[in-house]
Amino acid sequence: MSWSTAEVARLAGISSRTLRHYDDIGLLRPARVSSGGLRHYEREQLLRLQQIMLLRELGMNLETIGAVVSGEADRVGQLRRHHRWLIEERDRFDRLADTVEATITQLEGGTEMSTEQLFEGFDADRQARYEAELIERYGEGAATAIADSKHRTAGNRAGLQQEWAGIEDRLVALLGAAPESAEVQAVIADHYRWISKHWTPDRESYTGLGQLYVDSPDFRARFDARDPRLAPLLRDAIAVYAQASL
Q1: Counting C-beta atoms within 10 Å of the first and last residue's C-beta, which end of the chain has fewer, N or C?
Q2: Is residue 202 domain-shared with residue 221, that is, in the same domain?
């Protein structure tokens, strides 16, 4: 049994244009193309599409998804990491829901909450997850860099956060510009100087940081809240800067 592009689009809830794009970039080829140019998909392609859509939900970019579904990356390892993150987020949202419910009960005259209960479920461990992921990617040398970063930035966290917000705002204003454009690269140069206040990345680790902005569900969700184009622009512009300047 086979399905046309329009039928698959309806089944999966995506556009026919998306399916054509996946074909064009080699991510999802149809089982066959008729003499009239119509694409036809079979069950094998539907299963592959399901996996692509799952990985997109988890925040992966199309390049990484291509490597995963083609067996060029550790598919099981990637899925296990994302599954672990999903379980952690599910549990956290359960705790947040309980916190909100208890707050409503208190405001309606019920049992008063303790001060500790007021903040249950908030993600105080997010920074720790970022650090763990950097250490996993770059080894124990990253742990030393993180410790040094904390020492160097102690007492100036508010100023650094304000500086980062300015960099992000400038990039948002440039969405749609080419990553290699002078305007974008000027912002990335400031981003590199800002990062260097925390640790000094080389070409490989700075490029890897750009990829982490796209691959990490935490980072991706944060950037997507501004605009889904922001994380890919950062990744691509960082790669250009690293190749040319580091």
Answers
A1: N
A2: yes
